[in-house]
Structures are given as structure tokens and as C-alpha cells.
Write a sequence for this structure.
């Protein structure tokens, strides 16, 4: 159970940071497809990052009242659906809104990750768990 809970957390954590950088190679195609400037085509990347900033204001209090596991299990599918919607968006406004919502719902893993490590691992293993958590956050953009 411990390993399963931690692996769910790692997948969520990597998705949150992977989604920020995976968009960057498509900026030129987005600019051409939606007939917007290159600067405007970078806006969905910025909105994803803003979603990562504002999402924890919702997910962190929910994790304190309902528990962290339910936050992980609800937010990842929601974030994936918003990402899927962004991929199929027919206009630029829809892409902007869905990228923000995907970032906000995907940010739960980053918001409650340290608390999950503290709750699930004994103190003697906490340093290893925390370093895995931080490594996942940095591996996402590197792989994206």
C-alpha cells in the first residue's frame, strides 16, 4: 500500500511539471493553426504555470479535510481530461482556458507532495523520499 500510494504521487508529480515543458516545441504550430503571434502562442505555457500557482489554493485545503489520496485520485484524471480537451480545442480561447485548468488541477501533487512523503515514510527514510519527490519535479521538464 505504501509503495502504491507513493507511485501514484510520483506519476502526478511528474505529469504536473512535464505538462509545462511539453507544450514548448508546438508553439510554432499553434501560432500557425490559430493565426496568432508567436508571443500569443506562448500564452498557454504561461497559463499552465499560473495554474500551477493557483491550483494549490484549492487542492491543499481539500487534502487537509478529505485526505491526500482522494486529492491525487481526483485531480490527475481531471487534469488529463483538460489536457485532452486542450489538444482538441477548436479555437485559441478554448486552448487558453483548458491549459490553465489543466495546470491548476495538475498542481495538487506539487502542493501536497511533501506532506505525503512525511506521512508515508518513517523519519529515517524521509530524506530519500523527499529527494525522489524533488527529482520527479525536475525530471518532468527535462523529459518534456
Amino acid at each position: 500500500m505504501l509503495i502504491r500510494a507513493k507511485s501514484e504521487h510520483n506519476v502526478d508529480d511528474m505529469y504536473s511539471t512535464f505538462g509545462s515543458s511539453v507544450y514548448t516545441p508546438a508553439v510554432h504550430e499553434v501560432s500557425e493553426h490559430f493565426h496568432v503571434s508567436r508571443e500569443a502562442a506562448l500564452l498557454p505555457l504561461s497559463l499552465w504555470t499560473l495554474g500551477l500557482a493557483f491550483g494549490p489554493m484549492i487542492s491543499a485545503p481539500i487534502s487537509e479535510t478529505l485526505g491526500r489520496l482522494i486529492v491525487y485520485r481526483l485531480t490527475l484524471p481531471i487534469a488529463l481530461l483538460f489536457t485532452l480537451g486542450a489538444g482538441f480545442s477548436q479555437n485559441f480561447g478554448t486552448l487558453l482556458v483548458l491549459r490553465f485548468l489543466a495546470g491548476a488541477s495538475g498542481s495538487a501533487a506539487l502542493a501536497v507532495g511533501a506532506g505525503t512523503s512525511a506521512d508515508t515514510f518513517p523519519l529515517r527514510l524521509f530524506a530519500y523520499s523527499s529527494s525522489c519527490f524533488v527529482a520527479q519535479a525536475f525530471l518532468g521538464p527535462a523529459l518534456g
